[in-house]
Amino acid sequence: MAEFRLGDIIDDYCLKCRRLTNHAIVSLLNREPAKVRCRACYSDHDYRREEVPPSKKDLKKMALFKEVLATVDPAATSNEAADAPKPARKAKKPAQ
After folding, report:
1. Which residue has the higher pLDDT, 94 or 58?
2. φ/ψ (deg, to 5) at 22
3. d(CA 39, CA 11)
């Protein structure tokens, strides 16, 4: 991978444009882009490494799912699985 320099053009997700666009590097931190400027709308933002942030709807779904998982007793579900009878296997007929 080539070393980044100020003014280099890289791809990143722009929150204002809501899409992946070309960006110019505005500042570097430890030889990695820290801030970038969108070349479509000229807004400056932190470098997101081309990752699309999750939507608010997805964040709400994850929070609700974690809440439901927290209410489930993991010890009870593992004991039920261990106590449940295993299905009997059918005997295979010998090949003739």
Report:
1. 58
2. -75, 140
3. 10
Task: Say if pTM beats, i.e. exceeds, 0.70.
Answer: no
> In the β-sheet with 9-14, what is the strand arrangement from edge to edge?
9-14, 19-29, 32-38, 44-46
DSSP structure class, residue 60: H
User: How many distinct structural domains can be found in the chain?
Assistant: 1
Q: What residues make up the domain containing 20?
A: 9-46
pLDDT above 70: residue 41: yes
User: Is 13 among the domain residues?
Assistant: yes
Query: Rounded to the nearest 5°, which phi and psi values hold at 76?
Result: -70, -40
Cα gap 4→27, rounded to integer Å: 10
Structure tokens at 77: 């579900």
